[in-house]
Amino acid sequence: MRVAIAGAGAVGRSIAQELLENGHEVLLIDKSPKAIKVEMVPRAEWLLADACEISALDDAALERCQVVVASSGDDKVNLVVSLLAKTEYGVPRVVARINHPNNEWLFNESWGVDVAVSTPRLLSALVEEAVSVGDLVRLMTFRQGEANLVELTLPEDAPLGGQRVGSVDWPRDTALVAILREGRVLVPSSDDTLEPGDELMFVASQDVEDELATLLGGR
To answer: What region holds the RCK C-terminal domain (predicted)?
Structure first.
């Protein structure tokens, strides 16, 4: 998979390193010469250019990318890059970083954003997840489908404890995508059982979150 990352600061470089280690091709784009630190991510392609300009994205061959990550520290830049990637180059997946929570409402499909990541929201969600059992915690929003990645730690007295995944009548537009149990990540099958203390990860539409929390015995 070929991934272009607009913004080669600490965040962009960190994402690039992770993707390269997983076998992907990565192009880092930044208009600041100070940000072009090839020695820090030597296996990536680098492009000194303004990712808000069509000519720069032409040079980047954005049409060959399966994913674009708008990871700069400027929300305006991230929105413009997202819109251009989606509308001008038809990039299938656009992920955008939100720097200021007040701008979160802008990061949706009208700006070409498929997944919006707000660092403050993610940090607060992780704090909630660390201290709360039985609370449904929203970790990430997938804007295009109005769906969220949510997590709940199954309480000791949860009514679903011991039940098979396949026997549960889950709410509509809900998918159980992972079970975290005793340090292991389980890809759930219909025969797996739900156990108290399991951390359950779902992709679910926002309007069924309350129903899902009630079903799982959450608060």
So the answer is: 137-218
| Confidence label for 218 from pLDDT (cuts 50, 70 and 90) | low
SS3 for 117? strand
With the CA atoms of 149, 103, 124 and 85 taken in that order, what torsion angle do they form, in degrees rounded to the nearest 10?
Answer: 40
- Using the Cα atoms of residue 209, residue 210, residue 213 and residue 219 in order, give the sign of their dihedral: positive
Residue 4 burial by Cβ neighbours in a 10 Å radius (0-12, 13-18, 19+):
buried
Q: What is d(CA 79, CA 88) in angstroms, rounded to the nearest whole number?
A: 14
- Helix spans in 26-74 (H): 54-59
**Is the CB of residue 166 less than 8 Å from the CB of residue 191?**
yes
Q: CA nearest 64: which of 116, 17, 24?
A: 24
Cα separation, 171 vs 169, in Å, equals 7
Q: DSSP for 55-89? A: HHHHHTTGGG-SEEEE--S-HHHHHHHHHHHHHTT
Q: Is the overall model pTM greater than 0.85, yes or no?
A: no
Picking from 109, 81, 110, 102, the residue whose alpha carbon sits closest to that of residue 12 is 81
Question: Quick check: 126 pLDDT over 90?
Answer: no
**SS3 label, residue 147:** strand
When computed from its CA atoms, the radius of gyration of the chain, rounded to whole angstroms, is 20
Tokens at 100, concatenated: 């200021």
- Residue given tokens 């679910």 in the structure block: 204
Q: Which residues on neighbouring strands pair with residue 141, listed in sequence order? A: 116, 148
SS3 30: strand
